[in-house]
Amino acid sequence: MLAARTPVSLHRRIAAAGQQRRCIVGSERKRGRTERRRFTQSLEIFSKHSPPIPPRAPPAAAAAAAGSEAKPPWQPPVLENAAFEEYYKVQQIVCKEEWNTFMGVLRKPLPATFRINTCCQFYKEICSKLENGFKRSLESEVSNVNGEDAISPLPWYPGNLAWQLNFSRKELRKNQALESFHEFLKHESEVGNITRQEAVSMVPPLFLNVQPDHHILDMCAAPGSKTFQLLEMIHQSKESGLLPGALVIANDLNVQRCDLLIHNTKRMYTSNLIVTNHEAQSFPECSVAKDCSEMYKDTCKSQRLEFDRILCDVPCSGDGTIRKGHDMWRKWNSGMGNQLHLLQVNIAMRGIELLKVGGRMVYSTCSMNPVENEAVIAELLRRSGNSVELLDVSSELPELVRRPGLSTWKVQDRVSWFQTHDDVPDDRKDVVLPSMFPSSNSTEESHPMCGDVEVNIDNRGSFSRNINIEERSNVNHDTDGASISSTNKIDSTSKFPLHRCIRIVPHDQNSGAFFIAVLHKLSPLNGSLIEGTKIQHKLAVALLRKEPGPGTIPYETILTRQQLKVSEVVDDAEMLGTRQDLSTDNRTSKHKNSTEVEMDFNDVENAQAESGDTMKMQKQSRWKGVDPVLFFKDDAVIKSITSFFGIKESFPLEGHLVTRSADNARRIYYISKSVKQILELNAEVGEQLKIASLGVKMFERHRSKDGCSCAYRLSYEGLSLLLPYISRRILYASPLDFLRLLQYRSINFAQFVDTRFGEEAASLMPGCCIVVLLEGNKPAVYISKDPSTVAIVCWRGKGTMNVMVSPPDRKDLLEKMANHLGLEDCTEEDWNRRNLVTGLID
Ligand SMILES: C[S@@+](CC[C@H](N)C(=O)[O-])C[C@H]1O[C@@H](n2cnc3c(N)ncnc32)[C@H](O)[C@@H]1O
């Protein structure tokens, strides 16, 4: 993929990383203090409601020092967060009857899960290796007390493409019987054939119902596991031999995480991906003001970025990931969700604005906190009027065990619980927002969480049962009274079917926890409604500014602070984003006062309003992180490449090649038609999109003394895309010669086993060529040239054929080839020993 790698941009990145690290270190210290204080406070306050916390098991070293020689028996982790327990019970996230089961599952390690990449060349072989090989061998080798399968496909994931192991990642590393399986997993993930991803995190993209021509926006995409899934979907659904018309824009605020995203999606070799670096809540729409007379309506419409599908996997407090790291359990508190609520609403609302009419948006979090989930969805529905509906997707993925969204909840602020915004003390009203509360009119019906048993809470937050639905709905209050929110007033009579939201809890199918809501845009957003909301929002801000109560903080300041504060509290792989993105916020807020580094457009707006220094801010808003993407327009070079490789006209190169360097491009990248359109639009709107990476590397400049007429060679990354359209410089090798090429990388023409191949290679003009594997006894003319064809890029030198494939790819091909030839148990050394190939090395 085309990512900026010039020394200048690298320096900038390194400087930014250093700065961010300093921010993280600073905030880590502060976080430690704040957490200790919060934790002590919550312990004191909640200890009267909660069972006593058992003492920690002594560490192994201490036990040994105390004289006990034997290793102490394994103890389940002590989960010491009374606030967490209280919160889950009060909000009825799990009911009383299942509490022990729930806690039991949380204490168990999360089973390892992975997906098979359907775009990899050998995915069918991998499926069969799992189904017929490992599944059986592991059953006999790994004892399972519960009689469960050692590995099994996740029943709800289409096509048996996602698998669950009945052991944790730790067991996988430690258990000798699992060694070969572990090696297999490590290797396949290294080359991108499988993705190790938590089961629940695989769910949101499945509800997007992606089609081959869709334009998709992944708003908060890093580290990219769901982006990878989306890319697989668009490539899988295309007709064979055709390039997909679809497009994925994967965005993330955090520069470092964007790099991770680029790295993680690189193995897709896709020309249909753009990685951008924006605040999702202000993602540019790239609209061009044009004459929109009736006649040009369609053209006008296309001059604005709109998406058929949007994934809005927002930063969240992350309690759903507790099984991955118990640290999160200790650190979690409800304030984390409160602080993120508004950011989540704003990101999701921007998503709705960018969604096409008729399009679908999936909102998801790895938290169970209603303030980050149902409250956000209710607020979206309020703000969108009748333009958006919450879809009932109960018939989709029927095997996925799920629970309905909550209809009622309370909001916790520090140690107090509130039922309505009216109850919130004045000096906290601007932190505990009206949109965090359910409205009594906001739900069609109540849906108990625990089957037939209706449970609810009394006002002291204790855990009681059998309060009926009517009583429960009395607990809710309309938020109309919350005078600073116009949004509640706009729609106070609406009914939101929040039970259509999906909650996945750990003890239903031995997983992590996740929240998902699927939204459908029915009509364009009502401009006056949005404007109304904005005006009311401004009024509220003005009101707070005018008459600040004692200790009241202006609304805007809170928004900034909310984003900064969260950096103090979260730490997990999925959650890494939250911590880092907030440290990015730290970074950007710092940069508000400096002139040196990149700025987000939002920051610019705020800063402009405050300082009025428009010119300065405009200068700062120019994103200087990476070099601009340029169309590669050197016709002479394009013609020489086209004629050298005999590239058919049906594969358009002109207008589809881009580079980052103005002169003498070293690498040329290929972009799909859909990406090309976006680039053109972006050029028209003054480079509003901050593009971190795009396209697939197709050609690389190659200087050689061999007298090659074409200055560029093909890149292995772009080969599968281009191969069906190439008519020259292709050689067909027998399996044995193909294997040997992979193994030795450079072979003399005279030393090929198949003398015909050696002669053909010798008679080829020097330069880049493609070697295709001859399968079985098929003559070359019958070998199809499609993405499933096994082929490599080589360089025909003076006397040798040289392989131009990276070491991991060669290793992968070698293994798959060995499999193909029934030599899977052989290592490279074995082949040497067995004299399958002998004395032929240069
Ligand atoms: C839950 S993670 C996303 C996980 C990702 N969807 C995946 O499946 O790999 C949340 C991401 O949001 C990013 N983020 C946080 N605030 C953001 C913002 N305002 N705009 C865009 N991205 C943001 C974080 O950097 C983080 O990578």
UniProtKB/TrEMBL annotation:
Classification via SUPFAM superfamilies: S-adenosyl-L-methionine-dependent methyltransferases (SSF53335)
Subcellular location: Nucleus
Location of the active site: 366
Spans annotated as Disordered: 47-72
Broad class of where this protein is predominantly found: nucleus
Single GO BP term: tRNA methylation
Positions with a binding annotation for S-adenosyl-L-methionine: 220-226, 252, 313
Entry superkingdom: Eukaryota
This protein's UniProt keywords: Methyltransferase, Nucleus, RNA-binding, S-adenosyl-L-methionine, Transferase, tRNA processing, tRNA-binding
Matching InterPro entries: MeTrfase_RsmB-F_NOP2_cat (IPR049560), MeTrfase_RsmB-F_NOP2_dom (IPR001678), Pre-PUA_NSUN2 (IPR057285), PUA_NSUN2 (IPR057286), RCMT (IPR023267), RCMT_NCL1 (IPR023270), RsmB/NOL1/NOP2-like_CS (IPR018314), SAM-dependent_MTases_sf (IPR029063)
Gene3D superfamilies, alphabetized: Vaccinia Virus protein VP39
Molecular-function GO term, any one: tRNA (cytidine-5-)-methyltransferase activity
Biased composition (Low complexity): 59-72
Record-annotated SAM-dependent MTase RsmB/NOP-type domain positions: 102-522
GO CC, alphabetical: nucleus
Family named by the database record: Belongs to the class I-like SAM-binding methyltransferase superfamily. RsmB/NOP family.
Protein name stated in the entry: SAM-dependent MTase RsmB/NOP-type domain-containing protein
